[in-house]
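Question: I have long wanted to understand how a fold can be written as tokens. Here is the record:
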Amino acid sequence: MAHRPDTLEHAPLGRDSAYPEQYDAGLLYPIPRAANRAPLGIEEGDLPFIGEDEWHAFEVSWLNSRGKPIVAVARFRLPAASPHLIESKSWKLYLNSFNQTRFYSREDVMKTLAHDLAAAAGAEVSVELFDVDAPELSARSLPGECLDDLDIAISDYTPSSTHLTVGEEIVEETLYSHLLKSNCPVTGQPDWGSVLVRYKGPKIDREGLLRYLIGFRQHQDFHEHCVEHIFTDLMAQAKPTQLLVLARYVRRGGLDISPWRATPGLTPPTPLRLARQ
């Protein structure tokens, strides 16, 4: 992969881009995670969480050895411990570079994807390919209790951890909201999603939690960093002994991103795809 600056200033996001005609791994554009983690007090090599960024790609196609198009849906899992995330538009351009490229088998496609994505991320990336009507892609609902029917007044649309308060009762519960919205840090485009919080510890005030989550409505950041922001604020303010934060963002440009971060020992319910995705 050709060396290029890995700052947003040079990223393809927000720029006019020609779609490639042939396979090109050099289209992938890595972004260091460290720059956005530092303001949250997160140090590389000493992460306070485990987790993954799960991507689904719906514009995946290539030619077989006889030139016939094959289509699929791809699922990628990128570890949170990887030094880089991959900028989404560059990922889309890279996937579209397969469109007119011949591969002998589905396995060859998977090996190529895994190799190139690992090189960009700096860590092993899991790759799965599904038929477009595979049952694994069926929609499900989030587990737990929904916060969205709480009748609350809202006047603050930037994230503030002061909304996060707790009581003395120790509980173990799963809560979720479909009211998550953040904005792309480059283009300003809205990113819509649902967020799940599973925790064990002092009971979190539900109205305050919903106000806090709605506070991301005018916040500009990548999906992955929004989840890490929520995780670190909840750990600091609520001090749970166990915590899982998972976001399921709606697809844009043929890609959806669903990051999760958790204390060791917790994992998200999988497979989990929502109807809105």
Notes: Residues 1-5 have pLDDT under 50 and may be disordered.
